[in-house]
Amino acid sequence: MMAVGLQFFRLPPEEKEKLYSDEPAKKIRLSTSFNVRKETVHNWRDYLRLHCHPLEEFLPEWPSNPESFKEIVSEYCREVRRLGLQLLGMISLSLGLEEDYIEKALGEQEQHMAVNYYPQCPEPDLTYGLPKHTDPNALTILLQDPNVAGLQVLKDGDHWIAVNPRPNAFVVNLGDQLQALSNGAYKSVWHRAVVNAAQERMSVASFLCPCNSAVISPAAGLVGDGDAPVYRSYTYDEYYKKFWSRNLDQEHCLELFRSAQLQ
Ligand SMILES: O=C(O)CCC(=O)C(=O)O
Ligand SMILES: [Fe+2]
Fold it and tell me: What's the gap in Å between 201 CA and the centre of ligand 2?
């Protein structure tokens, strides 16, 4: 997966330009930074963003250069989805819910992928690959460059720790929707990617996302008995639009969805 991703970013600019777009709603696009339409300070990142489910719907539009791209990346996407759904089952159980609770609550989940490419940066102290953010979706499965560190997570709200790559391991991030569904029991982690002067870096993030019409609210089994719902109900469509209308490093987007009683 990493190798074919890197081959893609090594293509000549004229070839890559055909896929360039800064329109967040586009389902297949090559872009840069995070949201160049909104932000005033750009980040040191290029990324290829693909919608991946249902595969048959999107595959025809995926890059056909490098030649092996579609085959390798589609197999990767299928496997990652299987893993993600298994994890959601385990997370449901860990909350004392039915194993299929979260999967049902999220509806037929979309799956998006960001193939991130962070070039060597001559002045890494002046920028980020990705600034501090939480992922807006439900669950993120991140494959890191095995040889170059860069991911950091915020611990106890006040210091950053490096999550260095481990051979053959994924990093799993819980996103905003699992924080909401679990009524805050699971936290959507603040994380960022730093860049360095010596080496380029890659990461591949696979995002499982609720279907747009899914109504997200704290699981009924987790509220009551003195535990008020921390978040109000909303559709994922509403959440996702709000997320992309903002800058990445503002306050937690979920803060805007707190229930009225608790504000
Ligand atoms: O490059 C990384 O390690 C982090 C990527 C990430 O957080 C994202 O794509 O949302
Ligand atoms: Fe992220």
Answer: 15
Please write the tens of the pLDDT for every residue from 113-142: 999 999 999 999 999 999 999 999 999 999
Ligand 1: which atom is nearest the Cα of residue 191? 7
Torsion of CA 100, 101, 104, 110, to 10 degrees: -90
Cα–Cα distance measured from residue 251 to residue 263, given in angstroms and rounded to the nearest whole number: 15
Q: In angstroms, what is the span from residue 134 Cα to ligand 2's centroid?
A: 6
Residue 56 has pLDDT above 80, yes or no: yes
Helix (H, G, I), strand (E, B) or coil at 87: helix
Q: Is 130 in the pocket of ligand 1 (CB under 6 A)?
A: yes
What six digits make up the tokens of 186? Answer: 């699971």
Identify residue 90 by its one-letter amino acid code: M
- Prediction pTM value: 0.95
How high is the ipTM of this complex? 0.99
Region of 166 please: left (phi>0), alpha (psi -120 to 50) or beta.
beta
Instruction: Fill in the amino acid letter for 218.
Output: P
Q: Residue 205 C-alpha to ligand 1 middle, in angstroms? A: 6
Sign, CA torsion 8/11/15/21 = positive
> If pLDDT is split at 50, 70 and 90, which confidence band does 262 have?
low
Q: How far apart are CA 17 and CA 54, in angstroms?
A: 26
Q: How far away, in angstroms, is 193 Cα from ligand 2 center?
A: 8
Residue to probe by mutation, ligand 1, list 9, 35, 139, 142, most atoms within 8 Å of CB: 142
What digits encode the pLDDT tens for the residues 26-36?
999 999 998 88
Rounded distance, CA 23 to CA 59, Å?
19
Residue owning tokens 């979309």: 110
Percentage of residues in the chain with pLDDT exceeding 90? 88
